[in-house]
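Quiz preparation item.
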């Protein structure tokens, strides 16, 4: 409490000057029609800007809910596509190379995720151990060995 009193004692002249300025502006606006019109227009202008900012803020808040609704609708629509389902049956094809006596088994797969930002680019495919894929096996695409 004493610090507030000390503040008013030290800065009292400033507080009195600010209070007198506010009273003067109030008197000028109330007793001068031109200044009253200017003050009214200024008040409307600032009020309109504040309302625009408020509306933009609430529109932004509604945007999150609308985005969630659109994502749910998109997921529902995408789940109806035939390619949204996959079968666990794997088509295999065997090729023999008689000169090397080596057998390769090809399993169709799709890349569902990749990590390009790490040192090694890792690909995640939609096939796994139950499909016959084991760790460190080679992956071949149309462009060559991955």
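Solution:
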């Amino acid at each position: 409490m004493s610090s507030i009193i000390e503040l008013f004692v030290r800065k009292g002249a400033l507080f009195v000057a600010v209070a007198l300025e506010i009273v003067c502006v109030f008197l000028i606006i109330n007793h001068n029609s031109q200044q009253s019109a200017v003050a009214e227009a200024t008040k409307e202008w600032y009020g309109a800007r504040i309302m625009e900012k408020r509306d933009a803020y609430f529109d932004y808040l509604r945007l999150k809910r609308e985005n969630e609704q659109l994502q749910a609708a998109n997921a529902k629509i995408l789940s109806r596509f035939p390619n949204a389902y996959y079968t666990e049956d794997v088509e295999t094809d065997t090729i023999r190379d008689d000169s090397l006596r080596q057998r390769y088994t090809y399993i169709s797969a799709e890349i569902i995720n990749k990590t390009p930002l790490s040192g090694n680019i890792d690909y995640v495919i939609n096939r796994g151990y139950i499909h016959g894929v084991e760790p460190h096996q080679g992956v071949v695409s149309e462009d060559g060995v991955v």
